[in-house]
Structure formats: structure tokens, C-alpha cells
Amino acid sequence: MPDRCTDEYMDGLRLRGDELADATVEALFADGQVGRFNTLMRWFTTSGQEVPEGLPGVARDYLRATAMPPDWVDWAVMEQARQFFIDNDVHISTALSFAAMPACYVVPHVARLLSATHSLAYPSRRMAETGQFTVYLMRPDAFEAGGRFLPAAQKVRLLHASIRRHLKQDDRWPEPVPICQEDMLGGLMMFSLQVLDALHRMGVHITPDGAEAYYYAWRVVGAILGCDPADIPPDLPAAREFSDRYMVRHMGPSPEGAHLTRQLIEMYEQVVPGTLLDPVVPALIRFLVGDTAADWLEVPRSRWDSVIKVAPVLLRELERFEDRGPWAAQLADRLGYLVTMLELSSLTRGRVMHYAVPQELKPLYGIRPAAARWTPPPPA
Predict the structure, then answer these.
(1) SS3 301
(2) How many of the other CB atoms lie within 10 Å of CB of 130?
(3) Which of 27, 85, 232, 268 could form a disulfide with 58 if both were Cys (CB 3.0 to 4.6 A apart)?
(4) What pTM does this model have?
(5) What are the tens digits of pLDDT across the range 198-212?
């Protein structure tokens, strides 16, 4: 097992991309087939679907090679992760929006990359893509014929490869490999471990087994998206060690991080009707990421910063309601699902988000927990 906490090891990760996806994208550009690929792949949306006729051979080979999940997947644990998501979908959506995304922005080179590859004026697209991707992952048919997760993951992997190619070719990146293995693993930590941390801060009651299952699902996602499985931390304590080291190495203030955060806040202020609750959004971000990171991101302060701290108390009352019986738990789960779908619908505007290989970099768019309780692993 490699020591994932040395600078030497993590520096090595910065020199590696995704060999299979990178070679596929390079061949598509070399043959002038990117436009044709994007057109045909727009209709390739479900597992088990026939590969579109006329698709370039290199793309067909890539799709066949990545059509199945890793053979080491424990499907019982994946089902446990799905149940964990059903139980906590609203809380997880909140953590993704107001903790995981700001955590990305607090890493300056990641914020610069997002600024270079996404239109700052349309942050809703990135949030919609992230939300839709997570919903696809947690559906019962995610890895079965007719499921939408694997085709979406195949496209995201090529999207990342195309961004690596563009930034390197245009000499727009100071390092050898944009979206390198270290950053891919860092992102994996933000959408798994740091989501669990945010749930803990909000007072959501989750079990150790549920937390490990949720992290396990993202380990599977990491392998599918091109992370080397040998480098993915195998459990939550190892993930904590890697995440802490990654953040210490890279986090800090940046103009791009502050700008992306302002766009995120404004987007959710527009989603919530009226203006009375607008200060809740920055207050929630500050509560979940802490004052230091919030100050780096220039998150405004308000009187809501103190009010929002009662959120764990309110969530505990909700859990007591759910514990009244199966009917209460089912009602809470159903309401949570509806709220999550309403938020996703407001971001996607009812559309299916498509992941295409950009031909150039430009603005493209706009089961109830038992008494045992998970607590975050201690800092390394």
C-alpha cells in the first residue's frame, strides 16, 4: 500500500492523467472526428444501448472498454450506499452545493481550471451536471441495462481528457498535466468525505456503516472516471489522511475562487423565491466550510451566521419525527426526494444535461440509522 501522505508521492500523481481517455481524445482530434463524435453520442444515453453507427473506431473501442463497472465492486455495499442516499438525499444535495463545491473553489488552481473551462456567468450548468450525475449514480438501475450513469461517466471522462488536451496545447496551464490524478482524487474527497463532514456539521444522524458505504460508492465512481484504483484511499481514515494533505498542499485564496463563490450564491438566491432568505445561502456556506475558507472565498457575513447554527437542532427534531414509525420515515424520504428533484429541475430547467467533448475552450452555456453514529476520522 503506497504512502499517500508524502509530497514525493503526491507530486508523482500530478504528472499523470488518464491514459485511455487521453489517447482516445487525441485520436479523435487527429482525425477531425470530434464534431461527428459529439453528434452521434448525443443519443447514446443508456447502458446496453447499441453503439451509434458511424462512430469512429477509436471511440467504439473506448466505449467497449469502459462499458462495465470494475469487477471488484461489492454490490451489497453499493445497495447500502443507495439506501443511505435515499435516507439523506436533501442533506446530501445541500452538502454538495454549499460545502463540496466551495471546497473546490478554495483550491486556487482548481478554481482557475473551472474558470478556464466553464462560463462564470452560468454556474447553474455545473451544479446541474453534478446533481444529475449523482442522481444517476444512486438509481437502482445505475449499472444495469437502461441505466444512465455509465454512459454519463464515459462522457465525463472524455470531457476531462479534452480539457487536459486544450489547456496543454494552448499553453494555458503552468503544470504538465491539468486535471491530474492528484486533483481527480482531491475532487473525489470533496464529493465523498467532505460531504460526510458537512452532514456531521449539520447534525444529520448517520451510521459508521452508512458513511463507509457512501464513500465506497465514490471509490467505485473514481475508478470509473479514470482514477487509478491503486491510488484511491481504501477507507475513510485513509481518505481523511489524503484529503487533509491535499488541502494543506493547495488551499488558499484566489480571485477565481471568490468569483465562482459569488456566482454560486447569486444562483441560489435566484432559485429561492423572494429576497428575505437570501442571506441564508452565504450563512450556510460559512457554517459548512468554516470562517477561514469562507473569508478566502469572500463569503459575506450577516446576522444569519448565528441563526444558521440552530440547523442541527432542527434536523434532530426531524429525525425524531422520522423515528415515529415506518410511515413517518417513508413520508420524510418521499418529501426529500421531491425537494431534491425540484432543485435539480430548477437547475436543469427540465433538460437532460449532455457531456460533450469541446472542440475549443470557450463558454459553453451558460433504512433508519441505528443508535451508533458516524463521526469524522481525526485529522492526520
Answers:
(1) coil
(2) 20
(3) 27
(4) 0.82
(5) 999 888 888 999 999
Question: How far apart (Å, rounded) are the C-alpha atoms in residues 277 and 250?
Answer: 33
368 or 307, which is more confident: 307
- Residue 326 in grid coordinates: 415506518
Instruction: Give residue 379's region: left, alpha or beta (phi > 0; psi -120 to 50).
Output: beta
- Name the DSSP letter for residue 231: G
Q: Strand, coil or helix: what is 252?
A: coil
Q: How many CA atoms lie within 13 A of 313 on its CB side?
A: 4
Within 254-303, strands assigned E span none
Which cell is 110 given? Answer: 482548481
Note whether 340 and 138 are within 8 A (CB).
no
pLDDT tens-digit map of 104-145: 999 999 998 888 765 444 556 666 677 788 888 888 889 998
**Calpha distance 178→164 (Å, rounded):** 5
Q: Are 353 and 132 in contact (CB under 8 A)?
A: yes
User: Residue 133: its pLDDT value, please?
Assistant: 83
Per-residue model confidence (pLDDT) at position 184: 97
Using the predicted structure, report yes or no on whether residue 263 has a pLDDT greater than 60. yes
In 3D, which of 339, 325, 327, 319 has the Cα closest to residue 207? 319
- In terms of C-beta density within 10 A (0-12 exposed, 13-18 middle, 19 or more buried), how is residue 273 classed? exposed
Rounded Cα distance between 43 and 283, Å, is 41
Could you give the CA distance from residue 109 to residue 14 in angstroms, rounded to a whole number? Answer: 12
Distance CA(155)–CA(21), nearest Å, equals 10
With beta carbons less than 8 A apart as the criterion, state whether 128 and 199 touch: no
| Chain-centre distance for alpha carbon 150 | 15
Q: From 13, 18, 10, 17, select the one nearest 246 (Cα to Cα).
A: 10
The pLDDT value recorded for residue 139 is 87
213's grid cell = 458505504
Predicted local confidence at residue 365, as pLDDT: 31
